[in-house]
């Protein structure tokens, strides 16, 4: 969640996944304000709610705290200061136990404000204080642009994602662009960003579908930011002491913007970073330290992949197709998507089978792409014609 007051429907979505168990809240400031809210105010039955306020790093090694972390069935990280969180919890039993809760015990884990900011595999640690968009864009390597990478938490689907919060107060789009430019320039690898405005929640299930909760789809938004795969994508200028330029035709980044609803009806699939419902697309860029955005379409990323049908030991036929595409494979196919020539997802199937059919009757005549992903994570694209 992006901070400010919680969205009750999002919190119910999260709390329901505790299966009536013991809920633990951890924080480094504040008090026990979540206890009654989670235990009774939301109307969902849980066994207990406990808040632990860490006063220092030594508390992260306390046997009682380690035991309570290991025993909980849901973990919530309150807002606060992410620099203190990383100082107290990184390389301590706390981060190891959070990893255990996520990877092995598979319980729901969430956070708001600073609690959200530390959930990405890469994160803004704020150890030198917060940074504004103007400051970050003016100098991507300024002391305040302090980013941790792959040394704290590893949450499913977020290993190469940086999160940002309070995204509307103030405008933080420019600093997220800078974070992604820094990460790309330093590693040669592209990363993604998820940002949430205040009172807005991003709820990611175990399939990677992120539902957006908020009281108003017109004023409370979440943003899913990725490098534009259709252009030469490295920043043109990302150096210490110089303003950032990352234009690439004013479309360096592709951004899906989704409004929050009380039912979480708008969603974005972070397992493929393309499939979405209810969102609009924007281009983001920076020119000499000045942020720019414009309306756009989704990413156009239909490229040939190294994996072939022969390597997958599969067939997809006939081509051209009149009504049905038939797929046969040695390994189970986990996902099959139909995309138009602009890269827009028209249909998605999750067959979990090595033999299935895809109806093409409802598609107008023309060319399309079939994208297949098998159980080993291998995928390929095949162009086909509907007649």
Number of helices: 9
Mean pLDDT: 92
CATH class of the largest domain: Alpha Beta
Round the Cα radius of gyration to an integer and report it: 22 Å
By CATH, the superfamily of the largest domain comes out as Class I glutamine amidotransferase (GATase) domain
Strand order of the largest sheet: 7-8-11-12-15-16
In whole angstroms, how far apart are the ends?
A: 47 Å
Number of strands: 22
Largest sheet: 6 strands, mixed
> Could you tell me the strand content as a percent range?
25-35%
Describe the protein in words:
The chain is an alpha+beta fold and about 375 residues long. It has 2 domains: about 10-295, 3-Layer(aba) Sandwich (Rossmann fold); about 310-385, Macroglobulin (MG2) domain (Immunoglobulin-like, Sandwich). Helices cover about 20% and strands about 35% of the residues. It contains 9 helices and 22 strands. The chain has helices at about 10-15, 35-40, 65-70, 80-90, 95-105, 115, 135-140, 175-185, 310, and strands at about 20-25, 50-55, 75, 110, 120-125, 145-150, 160-165, 190-195, 200-205, 210-215, 220-225, 255-260, 265-270, 275, 280-285, 290-295, 315, 325-340, 345-350, 355-360, 365-375, 380-385. Strands 7-8-11-12-15-16 form a 6-stranded mixed sheet. Strands 17, 18, 19, 20, 21 and 22 form a 6-stranded antiparallel sheet that branches. Strand 7, helix 8 (about 175-185) and strand 8 (about 190-195) form a beta-alpha-beta unit. Mean pLDDT is about 90; it is low at about 300-305.
